[in-house]
């Protein structure tokens, strides 16, 4: 992220490394290993590595149109290799609606999707139209229900919307009070506890009426909202603490999703979350670190790719500022600027296999913040779009 247009450069503490890689050394590796491609065709070098992995993590720069086009192409290309699941950094309360939308709208056929869905998920919905139901790509949400994403108000709308579309389980009432968004955190927790008890005590009746899949969707909504109430409250006084609590929830949801799906999983999430170590300078353990080094559900079969853009332009209504890595003041061994200067306006895939990315440090420009690190500790490969366009949030 840009900090008032300035450059901040530092070495990441705790990383073992030798001397910095020189520009000449880096240039030779780029010439040998980089693969240039267009956005419509993903190179075989990338697909081969992905297909061999149980989990592929895409560490994105948020809201880039070209990136979402690539995600859809990647899911289509990996389908024959058993990949059936895409996890996205969206509040869990959206989980059932996004998954239903890409499957064709069985639950909500009359629902009119906002532009956000069209820009990100329509291509996957179109892929699914040609597939039998048991082979369709599922899109699942893995984030907390924070205030910045609608919080308790949106949760109430989405919870009521889901329950209203399920068969009537009378005489059991599963509902939220109309005043739920305005309740105190303590009262919201009490509401979730009551709902959880109702669901647990009446599981057999509700499963018979709704089916196991729908019951589990409702139960998980209540479970995650219970945690989200605490995260929203913690965010008011301790932003770092809330960020850690949020990351722990993301890890738990990802572990659950991966364990449930025996095929391959692609996870699309911000580059901070994707990293396998602490490139971005915080102390908490990120999702990529957890998946690569801790959780048993992946078994080490993981590919983590960092995505960025050499030049980012803004579409009408998009937030942020334009960015051009070639205009940044950066050291001679800044890897992304060198890629952009070598292949102007081209998309480039770079596997980080060479030992110099493991044993020595290069500079990495995260939109005008320069990190100096053995970059293979964070990512297994990089993809840089030559030009990308940041979309509006809604």
* CATH architecture grouping of the domain at 8-82 and 263-390: 3-Layer(aba) Sandwich
Average pLDDT rating: 93
Low-confidence stretches: 1-16
Q: What is the element string, with H for helices and E for strands?
A: EHEHEHEHHEHHHHHEHHEEHEHEEE
What this model shows, in words?
It is a single chain. The chain is of the alpha/beta class and 394 residues long. The protein has a domain at 8-82 and 263-390: EreA-like (biosynthetic domain) (EreA/ChaN-like  fold, 3-Layer(aba) Sandwich). The chain is built from 14 helices and 12 strands. It has helices at 23-33, 44-51, 65-78, 95-102, 115-129, 151-164, 185-201, 203-210, 212-235, 239-260, 271-274, 287-293, 335-342, 356-359, and strands at 8-11, 35-37, 55-60, 83-91, 138-143, 264-270, 302-314, 323-324, 347-351, 362-365, 369-373, 381-390. Strands 2, 3, 4, 5, 6, 7, 8, 9 and 12 form a 9-stranded mixed beta sheet that branches. Helix 3 runs parallel beside helix 5, helix 6 packs antiparallel against helix 9 and helix 8 (203-210) packs across helix 9 (212-235). The longest helix has 24 residues, at 212-235. The chain is globular, with a radius of gyration of 22 Å. The relative contact order is 0.21.
What characteristics describe this protein?
alpha/beta; 9-stranded mixed beta sheet; 12 strands; disordered N terminus
In short:
With 394 residues, the chain is of the alpha/beta class. It is built from 14 helices and 12 strands.
Write the SSE topology.
Elements: E1 8-11, H1 23-33, E2 35-37, H2 44-51, E3 55-60, H3 65-78, E4 83-91, H4 95-102, H5 115-129, E5 138-143, H6 151-164, H7 185-201, H8 203-210, H9 212-235, H10 239-260, E6 264-270, H11 271-274, H12 287-293, E7 302-314, E8 323-324, H13 335-342, E9 347-351, H14 356-359, E10 362-365, E11 369-373, E12 381-390
Parallel strand pairs: 1-11, 3-6, 3-7, 4-5, 4-6, 7-12
Antiparallel strand pairs: 2-9, 7-8, 9-12, 10-11
Helix pairs in contact: 3-5, 6-9, 7-9, 8-9, 9-10
């Amino acid at each position: 992220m840009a900090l008032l247009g300035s450059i901040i450069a530092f070495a990441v503490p705790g990383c073992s490394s030798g001397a910095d890689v020189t520009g000449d050394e880096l240039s030779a590796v780029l010439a040998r290993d980089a693969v240039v491609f267009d956005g419509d065709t993903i190179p075989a070098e990338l697909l081969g590595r992905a297909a061999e992995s149980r989990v592929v993590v895409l560490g994105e720069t948020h809201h880039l149109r070209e990136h979402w086009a690539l995600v859809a192409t990647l899911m289509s290309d990996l389908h024959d290799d058993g990949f059936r699941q895409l996890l996205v950094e969206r509040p869990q309360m959206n989980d059932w609606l996004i998954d239903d939308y890409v499957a064709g709208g069985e639950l909500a056929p009359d629902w009119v999707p906002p532009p956000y869905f069209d820009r990100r998920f329509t291509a996957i919905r179109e892929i699914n139209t040609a597939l039998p139901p048991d082979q369709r790509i599922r899109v699942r949400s893995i984030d907390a229900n924070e205030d910045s994403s609608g919080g308790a108000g949106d949760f109430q709308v989405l919870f009521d919307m889901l329950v209203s579309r399920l068969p009537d389980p009378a005489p059991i009432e599963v509902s939220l009070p109309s005043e739920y968004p305005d309740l105190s955190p303590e009262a919201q927790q009490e509401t979730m506890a009551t709902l959880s008890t109702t669901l647990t005590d009446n599981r057999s009746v509700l499963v018979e009426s709704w089916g196991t899949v729908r019951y589990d969707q409702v139960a998980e909504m209540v479970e995650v909202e219970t945690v989200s109430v605490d995260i929203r409250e913690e965010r008011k006084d301790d932003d770092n603490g809330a960020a850690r609590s949020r990351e722990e929830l993301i890890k738990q949801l990802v572990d659950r999703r991966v364990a449930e799906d025996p095929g391959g999983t692609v996870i699309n999430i911000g580059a901070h979350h994707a990293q396998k170590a602490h490139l971005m300078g915080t102390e908490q353990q990120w999702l990529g670190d957890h998946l690569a080094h801790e959780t048993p559900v992946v078994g080490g079969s993981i590919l983590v790719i960092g995505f960025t853009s050499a030049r980012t332009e803004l579409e009408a209504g998009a937030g942020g500022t334009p960015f051009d890595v070639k205009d940044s003041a950066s050291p001679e061994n800044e890897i992304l600027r060198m890629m952009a200067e070598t292949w102007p306006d081209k998309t480039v895939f770079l596997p980080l296999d060479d030992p110099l990315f493991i044993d020595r440090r290069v500079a990495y420009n995260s939109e005008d913040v320069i990190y100096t690190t053995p970059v293979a500790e964070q990512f297994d490969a990089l993809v840089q779009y030559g030009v990308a366009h940041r979309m509006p949030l809604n």
